Each structure stands twice: as C-alpha cells, then as structure tokens.
Amino acid sequence: MNKQAKLLLVDSDQPLLKAMRCSLETTGYRVYTASNRQDAVRLNNLEKPNLVILSNQLIGSIGLDLADTLLDSGSPFIFYQHQQVSDPMHLHETGEDSASLLRQDEQVSSLIACIESLLKQSFDSEELKKQEQHYIKAIETGKIVGTVVGILMERHRLNRASAFELLRTRARSQRRSLVDLAQEILDALETLTQISE
C-alpha cells in the first residue's frame, strides 16, 4: 500500500482532529486537516487528497453540503464514527483507566484498516483506468496508421508491408512520429474531400 497517500480529515472537534492526524501521520500518511466546510473545500481542490475522511458529526446540512461538493469533484470520501479520543496525559491526570486508550487504539486501527482497503480499491481503479486509456490510444493509433497504410496501398499499388515501410521512412526523414504524420495525411485527405464536394 502506498503510505504516501494524501488524506484530508474534516472535523470540528480540534482535539480529536489533532489526535487522529498524529495517528495517521505516524502510520505514514500525508494528512491535511480542516475544521470547517470552507477549509475542507479549499484543501480538497488544492491538495487533491486520495481520500477525505468526514466526521459523522458533520452529517447536518454542512456535512451533506460538503459531501455533495466532494461527490461533484470526484473525491472519494467516508464518514467515520465520531467518538471522543482521549489524551493519554488527560487519562493519567483524571485517573481514568486504560480501557479508554485501548478503545481509542482499536478505533484508530479499524479506521486505518478501512482507509487502506479503500485506498487499495482506489489505486487499483486508477491503474485500470490508465491501462484502459493506454489501450484506447493504441487502438486509435492502430486505426489511424492502418487507414493511411490502406490509402498508400491503393494509391501506389503497394502491399501492406511496403506501404507501412513507406510511411515509416517518411516519418523518420521528417523526424516525426508515425502517428502524427498519419494523422496529418488523414486531415489533408479530409480537407481535399470537403473541397471536391
């Protein structure tokens, strides 16, 4: 898992926000925090986090409005169960038992597991999109070059290999990519067709 993933935490509870940030940064994530809608939207647009984590305390009109904004921007987000995170020094000073710390650790561990699972899905999805774009481009390139090779075969009475070699030699002599030259030829043919109509 890429621990350099960027997370945006949004919560109006500053002590909780600080504690969660420390826990997630210790795990290796780059963490940005916002305590209100305006800061959250600004950081989301500026930093493009891999995941936005919203407090369930924001579910009111501000939280729903922020969730709509995140949906519109395409940013993945989750709501987390808001529970008070205790400060170890505060527990010691007040005499509270360590059960609160254990619950906090379990909550953070559970949140980290959820984050890692969602980020893996997100990264896998991004990788699939990149591969799909690569294949689409390769298919389009093949169609363009194939069309021009067909035109050269017809015009110069060449076989496919000779027509392809002619196109490749011309591209090399002009120090251009094969696809750019083929696209230029197709554009010129389209212009000629429009003129002759």
Structural topology:
Elements: E1 6-10, H1 14-27, E2 30-34, H2 37-47, E3 51-55, H3 61-73, E4 77-80, H4 88-94, H5 99-156, H6 160-173, H7 178-196
Parallel strand pairs: 1-2, 1-3, 3-4
Helix pairs in contact: 2-3, 5-6, 5-7, 6-7
Description:
- The protein has 197 residues and is of the alpha/beta class.
- The protein folds into 2 domains: 6-128, Rossmann fold; 132-196, Arc Repressor Mutant, subunit A (Orthogonal Bundle), CATH 1.10.10.10.
- It has 7 helices and 4 strands, in the order βαβαβαβαααα.
- The chain has helices spanning 14-27, 37-47, 61-73, 88-94, 99-156, 160-173, 178-196, and strands at 6-10, 30-34, 51-55, 77-80.
- Strands 2-1-3-4 form a 4-stranded parallel beta sheet, sandwiched between helices.
- Helix 1 links the parallel strand 1 (6-10) and strand 2.
- Helix 5 (99-156) crosses helix 7 and helix 6 (160-173) crosses helix 7 (178-196).
- The longest helix has 58 residues, at 99-156.
- The relative contact order is 0.09.
- The model is unreliable at 84-103 (pLDDT under 50).
- Residues 125-186 form the ANTAR domain.
- One of its GO terms (molecular function) is RNA binding.
- This is ANTAR domain-containing protein.
Q: What string gives the helices and strands in order?
A: EHEHEHEHHHH
Runs with pLDDT <50, length 5+? Answer: 84-103
Looking at CATH, which topology of the largest domain would you report?
Rossmann fold
Gyration radius over CA: 28 Å
Overall domain count = 2
